Every structure is written in structure tokens, then in C-alpha cells.
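Quick one, C-alpha cells below:
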């Protein structure tokens, strides 16, 4: 073997100094208001539980996930239930850190003080959070996972990950995603891997559950728990008439009626039947027309102003609107959104300061509207897919002078 034969081999070795995507460990996290999902990609471990934590001061224990959620409506002064993500925001970073620490422990990931941290640790954490969180919260989250032992933490908007996970091309021209979670409905038009414009309404899962509870209290003088109201929503919650509608039986505690007579006897527990139609007409349609539909229109209008052509792009075949998140399971949601957007609508516009607002008429628009497959998994699926993009960012950071990276070279 001649001396020169060795040269190409050395070059090859040099090239392999760049870590391949599989040299890193990847942890994807969907930090939802209602559900917390994690996937430890390299080993295929998963975690999926309600984003709840309960502290029982009497028994001195901390409960997580289902066990903690089960204590809602049953708490006494010794039990405190914590929901770290509320209304599309990180409301309790400390509780979130504890849930994360538990996941790290469950997955047997290193937990070390950052001072003694092993320089070779290679865990990359990719987190999807509500789009509305600010840069301080974003940085705080990245620091939390760093403290827990990760090499790096990256935060991405939940709605973007949902769109990617639902199979849409977030790297191309305009697409629209409506992610209806527990605490917020995030609506966005995206293109070129970024959000063109997004808007969040708090009319989402928890809010609809609460409105069902209020309606049943007012109309039927029956107090039902949060869990029962959520079951009503999941079982008969609909936006248009659906096949095989049947009344639904619920139990609760009688409330005194406004017209009750003094001395009238009241049974404490009561069971009644409610119909899908009354929930649809008095709760679901009302709330969607008041909050969700105007929010979608607002995102469409503003995106159109920001990027000419984005709305006509959305009207093309195969594009349109994809509905993700648990709320996508509401019966007939796709047909209802399509029908409502096609209707003409009015907006009050102020022409000049001091003048009366003018009611301006707008024509409706026709879009394809579809419900994503496995809507509860879109965000975590998106995070797993987005690993390629993060990997390219990492390589670009380490090798700022390196030219265009090709998939074959760097994705191993
Ligand atoms: P988050 O991202 O905020 O954690 P998810 O996308 O996991 O929220 O969705 C949770 C919400 O979806 C809850 O409010 C839950 O009640 C609602 N949900 C789940 N299944 C259904 C269903 N079949 N019908 C209506 N709503 C549902
Ligand atoms: Mg979500």
C-alpha cells in the first residue's frame, strides 16, 4: 500500500468529526395545557399524560398526570392541583420543571447540576409550547432543560409543529392551521418555516366545557362536575346535525330554581337527559360564531395584508385549513367552519378619528377544511419531524463557514 493511498481515508475521518443526527439523543416534548407528551426518539420511549400535578401536603406526596387530574373537584385544603400551562401561557414554571424532571427521571436521562455537567452530553430537547409565550419564558424553558442535563433546548410554536405533524408543508407557500387545544385555540398562516400571522383565542376545550357546565346549571338547574361536562362535550358536542343523535344522561346536584317556592322539596342528586341539539345550539355554535370564526377571519385578513397572495394561495386545491388538537374531534367541525367562512360578514370600521364606525360588508370565502388524522398527536409528531431542521441549525452553528449541507452528508 503506497503512502498516497492513505490520504482519502484521512479526509473521510475529518468529515466524520461532524456528528450525525443519530449521534445526538432527541427528546421531543409537547407542552400542552391539557396533555403533556414526550418522545425519546432514539429509544422509542413515550410519555403521555394530562399536564397536571397535585401536591398532597397531608400524605406528603406529589401526584402526576391522570392521578392528579382525578383529584379535580375532589380537593380538600391539603391538596393543591397545579396546571403549569394555563390559557396558552406558562403559568407555573416551577410545576412545569417538576413534571419535566419526572420525565427525565422516567427516561433515565442524566440529571446533573450544570456546573458538573458532562461536556459530552448530547441530548437535544425540542419543545412545542403555546405560540403566545414571550421571549423570557422561552429562554426560561430552554434553561430548565439545560439544567436538567440537556446539551440544548429549542422551543418551537405549538401551532407550527401541529401543522408539520399533520402532514402539511410548512416550508413552502402559505398553509393554515387551527389548533384547538385545552386552553387555547391557536390559528396561524405559515410559510417558509415561519408564522406569517397568528392569533390565539381562549375559546378552546376548557372554555367549552365550562360553558356546557353553565348552560346545564342555568337551563336544567343541575350542577355537574368538570369531568361530567367534559364527557358531555366529547360524547355529544357537535357543530352541525350528525347521524344517530341520541339523548345523553347526566347526573349532578340539584340547584335551587329561580322560580322555586319557599318550602318546596329539593332532591339532592338528580339525573336528567340532554340532547345533542340543545348543546349544539346553545353552546357550541354560539361560542364558535362568537370567537373561533371571527378569529379565523382575522388571521386570513391580516395574513392577506402581510403577504399579498397568501389567501388566494390558501384557496387552491389541496391547501385550505387543517384543524388539529383535541378540539378537532368535535363532530362536524370541518363542515361548520367551511359553511361559516363562506357566509358574508360585517365588520365595523372607523374611518377617521371621531367619526362613527361604518358597518362594512365582506364576501365569504370558500376553503377546503379538513380534520387532521390523529389530531392529539400532531404536535409531538411535528416535533419529531422537525429534528432534521434543528440538526441543520446545529451543524450550521458549529461550522459557520461550511457551505450548503446536503441531506446525505449530514443526516447520516
Ligand atoms: P393541549 O394541546 O392544550 O394539551 P389537546 O390538543 O391535547 O390540548 O386537546 C385537549 C382538549 O381536547 C381537551 O379540552 C379535551 O376535552 C378535548 N377533546 C379531546 N377529545 C375530544 C372529543 N372527542 N371531542 C371534543 N373535545 C375533545
Ligand atoms: Mg396542543
Amino acid at each position: 500500500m503506497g503512502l498516497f493511498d492513505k490520504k482519502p481515508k484521512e479526509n473521510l475521518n475529518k468529515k466524520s468529526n461532524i456528528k450525525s443526527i443519530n449521534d445526538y439523543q432527541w427528546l421531543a416534548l409537547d407542552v400542552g395545557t391539557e396533555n403533556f407528551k414526550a418522545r425519546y426518539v432514539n429509544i422509542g420511549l413515550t410519555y403521555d399524560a394530562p399536564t397536571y400535578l397535585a401536591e398532597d401536603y397531608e400524605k406528603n406526596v406529589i401526584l402526576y398526570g391522570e392521578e392528579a387530574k382525578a383529584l379535580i373537584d375532589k380537593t380538600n385544603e391539603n391538596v393543591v392541583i397545579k396546571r403549569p400551562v394555563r390559557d396558552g401561557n406558562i403559568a407555573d414554571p416551577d410545576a412545569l420543571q417538576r413534571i419535566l424532571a419526572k420525565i427525565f427521571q422516567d427516561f433515565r436521562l442524566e440529571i446533573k447540576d450544570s456546573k458538573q455537567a458532562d461536556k459530552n452530553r448530547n441530548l437535544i430537547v425540542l419543545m412545542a409550547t403555546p405560540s403566545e409565550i414571550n421571549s423570557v419564558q422561552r429562554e426560561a424553558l430552554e434553561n430548565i432543560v439545560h439544567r436538567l442535563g440537556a446539551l440544548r433546548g429549542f422551543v418551537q410554536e405549538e401551532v407550527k409543529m401541529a401543522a408539520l405533524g399533520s402532514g402539511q408543508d410548512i416550508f413552502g407557500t402559505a398553509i393554515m392551521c387551527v389548533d384547538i387545544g385545552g386552553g387555547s385555540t391557536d390559528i396561524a398562516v405559515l410559510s417558509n418555516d415561519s408564522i406569517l400571522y397568528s392569533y390565539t383565542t381562549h375559546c378552546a376545550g376548557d372554555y367549552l366545557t365550562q360553558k356546557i357546565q353553565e348552560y346545564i346549571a342555568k337551563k336544567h338547574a343541575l350542577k355537574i362536575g368538570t369531568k361530567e361536562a367534559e364527557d358531555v362535550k366529547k360524547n355529544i358536542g357537535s357543530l352541525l346535525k350528525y347521524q344517530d343523535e341520541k339523548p345523553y344522561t347526566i347526573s349532578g346536584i340539584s340547584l335551587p330554581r329561580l322560580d322555586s317556592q319557599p318550602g318546596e322539596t329539593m332532591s339532592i342528586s338528580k339525573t336528567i337527559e340532554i340532547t345533542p341539539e340543545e348543546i349544539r345550539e346553545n353552546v357550541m355554535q354560539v361560542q364558535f360564531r362568537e370567537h373561533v370564526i371571527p378569529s379565523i377571519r382575522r388571521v386570513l385578513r391580516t395574513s392577506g395584508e402581510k403577504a399579498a397572495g397568501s389567501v388566494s394561495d390558501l384557496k387552491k386545491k389541496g391547501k385550505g385549513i387543517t384543524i388539529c388538537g383535541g378540539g378537532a374531534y368535535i363532530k362536524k367541525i370541518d363542515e361548520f367552519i367551511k359553511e361559516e367562512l363562506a357566509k358574508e360578514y360585517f365588520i365595523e370600521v372607523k374611518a377617521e378619528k371621531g367619526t362613527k364606525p361604518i358597518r362594512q360588508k365582506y364576501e365569504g370565502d370558500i376553503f377546503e377544511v379538513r380534520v387532521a388524522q390523529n389530531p392529539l398527536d400532531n404536535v409531538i409528531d411535528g416535533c419529531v419531524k422537525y429534528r432534521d431542521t434543528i440538526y441543520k441549525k446545529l451543524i450550521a452553528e458549529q461550522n459557520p463557514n461550511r457551505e450548503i449541507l446536503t441531506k446525505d452528508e449530514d443526516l447520516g
